[in-house]
Design a protein that fits this description.
Blueprint: H1 2-5, H2 9-31, H3 34-51, H4 61-79, H5 98-117, H6 120-131, H7 136-143, H8 147-169
Helix pairs in contact: 2-3, 2-4, 3-4, 4-7, 5-8, 6-8, 7-8
Length: 171
């Protein structure tokens, strides 16, 4: 990051290569839309590059980047409006294990819908904890809050997810 701050574009390309996959994963899990996630990650890297001259390694770069991603995702999630498709998506061809595959798809869709039902802060905390494996302290840094607040966000998020997914499992 310090090299990027000095204008080294190859160093910036290396940062993008190292961090784009997990950054996109977070954005997609929070926003649930491929194009919107790509836009957020691109914007996050641009912000990272703009801040590179001011960056001081007081915490890890990844923690700093989590803050940028979290802020952008939460801003988008707050403005997010429902999107409706004009065209029905293609149904994949059946396979020998079609019922098993369909159940996995339905389960993934149910989890996605349950995540979407959470408040943006809760959703981000859940994604950072259970998908990214961050500690409460790291989540607190990313969300610019306290570990106690993260604990409350996660507890409420888990309760809400359990309630939503219980209705999916037990119709």
């Amino acid at each position: 990051m310090l090299a990027v701050g000095e204008g080294d574009l190859e160093a910036f390309e290396e940062l993008v290569r190292r961090h784009q996959a997990w950054a996109w994963g977070i954005a997609y899990r929070v926003l649930g839309h491929r194009q919107e996630s790509e836009d957020v990650v691109q914007d996050a890297f641009l912000r990272l590059r703009e801040a590179s001259g001011r960056y001081r390694p007081t915490s890890s770069l990844k923690t700093y980047f989590y803050q940028i991603i979290a802020r952008l995702c939460l801003d988008r999630a707050k403005k997010k409006q429902p999107r409706y498709l004009d065209v029905v998506p293609d149904v994949p061809a059946s396979t020998l294990d079609a019922p098993g595959e369909m159940e996995k798809t339905q389960e993934a869709d149910a989890v996605r819908a349950a995540l979407d039902a959470l408040a943006p802060q809760q959703r981000m905390a859940v994604v950072l904890r259970y998908y990214e494996g961050l500690s409460y302290q790291d989540i607190a840094l990313a969300l610019e809050t306290t570990p106690k607040a993260v604990e409350r966000l996660l507890a409420r998020g888990r309760d809400r997810l359990q309630a939503i997914l219980k209705t999916w499992k037990d119709p």
